[in-house]
Specification:
The chain is elongated, with a radius of gyration of 37 Å. Helix content is 17%, strand content 18%. The protein contains 8 helices and 13 strands. With 356 residues, the chain is α+β, with helices and mostly antiparallel strands.
């Protein structure tokens, strides 16, 4: 540096200990660029249906990387979710963590919710076969799986499947082996990492504690490079997520905070009750008539003069009682008892009264 061979963004730097920003500054030595390793990145993505889990597709279909912002260091998916499946997908540039989470020897569990066609009993023979392990169409023998009966909705049955191995399309092929049709498949956790509350097509950066927990699930210690990981800085730089072709293909809009879930979400699952947005040109709900603190809306009618006749006289003299009931404070007048001192009138009987 003292010889003036180092430049930062085209300017020669001779001061020892000068600081740079490795993400934005360009450093050269003898006019040759110095290549620096990308900082570690760990992303939890809620993959929607209709998006392929790959970095490049010759058919130019929507890819999971299309859901991530531009300028992000290169990342890749850990494991796979097929075109029709959805749910939690981990994106990272940490090769060591990728190997630990995908190798069957580490036994890191992945949990899926699976909706199959038809009504199944909790002790159905087909469920028991998958629990014990089945032979797939390519001859692969699956290990024992943990399967829980979640219930029946409509014409379908929900199951929770926990695997510690990741053969290609394993759950769908397990169901195919026992003659079950998969209607929907969604991954909800990878080890201690949970999908919620991410909406389909949205992503977030993992915290340092979450990354450490993933390493602990594989019985490994996190690397020293994790010290350079700054989820807060990444969130400030790359949030909010932008709308993409992949999101449009799946019917979602991740570029808007609080975007709604997939419009084709099954009706048998609970959904948040949200107040619909006002129509174009309509006032917001807080400013509509009748709301607290809102002024009443003009009706377009002017005050009219009182009608002619008695009501007009009553309106001109509001203190004057309009009837005997008003004069008595709203109480009805007593019945007519006739002249003063006369006994009250008795109701007579008709010719047929008193007879049975």
């Amino acid at each position: 540096m003292a010889a003036g061979r180092v430049s930062v963004n085209g300017a020669v730097v001779k001061e020892l200990g000068a600081r740079i920003d490795p993400e934005n500054d360009r450093v050269t030595v003898d006019d040759k660029p110095v290549l620096m390793d990308d900082p570690p990145v760990y992303i939890a993505l809620n993959k929607p249906r209709g998006v392929i889990t790959t970095l490049d597709d010759p058919e130019d279909r929507a890819k999971v990387v299309d859901l991530l912002p531009d300028g992000l260091p290169r990342t890749w998916p850990v494991g796979r979710l097929d075109w029709e499946s959805e749910g939690l997908l981990l994106m990272t540039n940490d090769g060591r963590l990728t190997h630990l989470l995908t190798h069957p020897s580490t036994c890191v569990e992945k949990t899926y919710t699976v909706k199959v066609a038809g009504h199944l009993d909790p002790h159905d023979d087909r469920i028991e076969k998958m629990r014990a392990g089945v032979t797939l169409d390519d001859g692969f023998e699956t290990s024992a799986a943990e399967i829980h009966f979640e219930g029946v909705t409509g014409k379908n049955t929900w199951l929770a499947v926990i695997l510690n191995e990741g053969h290609n399309r394993q759950i769908r092929r397990m169901c195919m082996a026992v003659h079950l049709d998969v209607v929907r498949l969604r991954r909800i956790s990878i080890g201690p990492l949970e999908l919620e509350p991410l909406r389909p097509g949205h992503y977030r950066f993992l915290s340092i504690d979450e990354v450490s927990a993933l390493y602990a699930a594989a019985n490994e210690s996190p690397p020293d490079s994790l010290k350079a990981y700054s989820p807060t800085r990444l969130t400030d730089r790359f949030a909010p997520p932008r709308p993409t072709r992949a999101a449009a293909a799946s019917g979602r809009n991740p570029g808007r905070k609080g975007a709604s879930a997939h419009p084709t979400e099954p009706a048998d699952e609970p959904r948040d009750k949200r107040r619909p947005a006002p129509r174009d040109g309509a006032a917001p709900a807080s400013a509509r008539p009748g709301r607290d603190g809102a002024a009443p809306a003009p009706t377009g009618k002017t005050d009219r003069a009182p009608r002619r006749g008695k009501r007009r006289e009553d309106a001109a003299a509001p203190g004057k009682p309009r009837s005997r009931d008003d004069a008595r404070g709203g109480r009805p007048a007593p019945p007519d008892r006739g002249p003063k001192g006369a006994p009250p009138k008795q109701r007579g009987r008709g010719p047929n009264q008193g007879r049975r």
